[in-house]
Design goal:
It holds the Pfam family Aldo_ket_red. This is (wild Malaysian banana) hypothetical protein. GO terms for molecular function: oxidoreductase activity. The protein is of the alpha/beta class. The chain has a domain of 249 residues: NADP-dependent oxidoreductase domain (TIM Barrel), CATH 3.20.20.100. The chain contains 13 helices and 10 strands. The strands form 2 sheets. An 8-stranded parallel beta sheet has the order 3-4-5-6-7-8-9-10, covered by helices on one side. Strands 1-2 form a two-stranded antiparallel ribbon. β5, α5 and β6 form a beta-alpha-beta unit. α3 packs parallel to α12, α7 packs parallel to α8 and α10 crosses α11. The radius of gyration is 20 Å and the shape is globular.
Length: 378
């Protein structure tokens, strides 16, 4: 499914500022009474120019998407069912401001809430109060490589279960959540054939993978190509904290094969927001990781802070904009209107080449890096 926007709405920008060269984008109009009431940005419509939309295989999406890992996850993100109304408002805000890509997974949600993220997305689409959604909103979901999914048919069944939770006829991008090459290589072929089968049955418009390293990505690309199925996307952890040799090699492979890199955790699980210190850590399991990594991040955080102040942006907006400038589609997670509004401020402008160089130099000089996802292959 997708959203079509009238021509009059294109080009609206959230938080427009002068660039270093002195060029100006049109300032936003004064907020309407409705915008003030619902705390929405003043103009309803995309916050980026039409030519900034991004191709992902046969699809065209916004230059940034939103991730929904937190929607149903009680352990890491403290989800409660009474939050659903706020999540609906967050989703509506995103749609009204041109976001057309939403990432989820059949494993998102803990315990009895397994699959809750997909259920909520489907519900929010049906209950969206705004323009007719049409055909352009792209739901990208991931299918877990559970050990009991041993045949292509079981993978197709998983896709149909996701469609039922979403209450959609077709998924935008069907993604293999992770590779089993590191621990169950014999299962890998069945999963690849499952992607082929769901594509051939028309259950998905495009296929992608997640947590694949460069070598394994080339293998699945070549296999799918031999079956007549284009691989359109590769979703991995990618941020200023994840600039390892493997991640940069992966980006080069994606560029050479025409695969769009979708960047999850573009804020390093929150470490690049500037909101946390070694004496002020988030609750839950993230605190263990933050305690290891944060002490060595001063050069990068200071650089983010300096650029954000000069740009009159936030550190989060600068970090996400870096991902956009690298040609990826960042999908920061959102669970509140405030987070969505801040993330939307990453759109409609670009870091200069000097600023990108400064950020990357600071990132490389930081002694600590983000721990790579254990599921990512070589």
């Amino acid at each position: 499914m997708a959203l079509r926007w009238p021509a009059a709405a294109t080009g609206a920008h959230f938080g427009c500022r002068a660039s270093k060269k002195g060029t100006m984008r049109p300032p936003p109009p004064s907020p309407s009474p409705a915008a003030k009431l619902f705390k929405l940005p003043p103009r309803i419509g995309p916050l980026f120019w039409p030519w900034e939309k991004v191709k992902v295989g046969p699809l065209v999406v916004s230059p940034m998407g939103f991730g929904t890992w937190a929607w149903g996850n009680q352990l890491l993100w403290g989800y409660k069912e009474e939050m659903d109304a706020l999540l609906q408002e967050t989703f509506d805000l995103a749609l009204r401001n041109g976001i057309t890509l939403f990432d989820t997974a059949d494993s998102y949600g803990t315990g009895r809430l397994n699959g809750q993220s997909e259920r909520l997305l489907g519900k929010f689409i049906r209950e969206f109060q705004g323009r007719n959604i049409g055909d352009n909103i792209v739901i990208a979901t991931k299918f877990a490589a559970y050990p009991w999914r041993l045949t292509p048919g079981q993978f197709v069944k998983a896709c149909k279960s996701s469609l039922e939770r979403l209450q959609l006829d077709q998924i935008g991008i069907g993604q293999l959540h992770w590779s089993t090459a590191n621990y169950a290589p014999l299962q890998e072929q069945a999963l690849w054939d499952g992607l082929v089968a769901m594509y051939e049955e028309g259950l998905v418009r495009a296929v992608g993978v997640s947590n694949y390293g460069p070598k394994q990505l080339i293998k699945i690309h070549d296999y799918l190509e031999s079956r007549g199925v284009p691989l359109c996307s590769a979703q991995v952890q990618f941020s200023l904290l994840s600039m390892s040799d493997a991640q940069m090699e992966l980006k080069e492979v994606c560029d050479s094969l025409g695969i769009r890199l979708i960047a999850y955790s573009p804020l390093g699980l929150g470490m690049l927001t500037g909101k946390y210190t070694t004496s002020s850590l988030p609750r839950g399991p993230r605190a263990l990781l933050f305690r290891q990594v944060l002490p060595g991040l001063d050069p990068l955080l200071n650089s983010l802070k300096d650029i954000s102040e000069m740009r009159q942006k936030t550190m989060s907006q600068v970090a996400i904009n870096w991902c956009i400038c690298k040609g990826t589609i960042p999908i920061p997670g959102v669970k509140s209107v405030k987070q969505a509004e801040e993330n939307l401020g990453s759109l409609g402008w670009r870091l200069s080449s000097d600023e990108i160089f400064e950020l990357e130099s600071a990132a490389k000089s930081s002694p600590k890096k983000m721990i790579q996802n254990i599921f990512q292959t070589r």
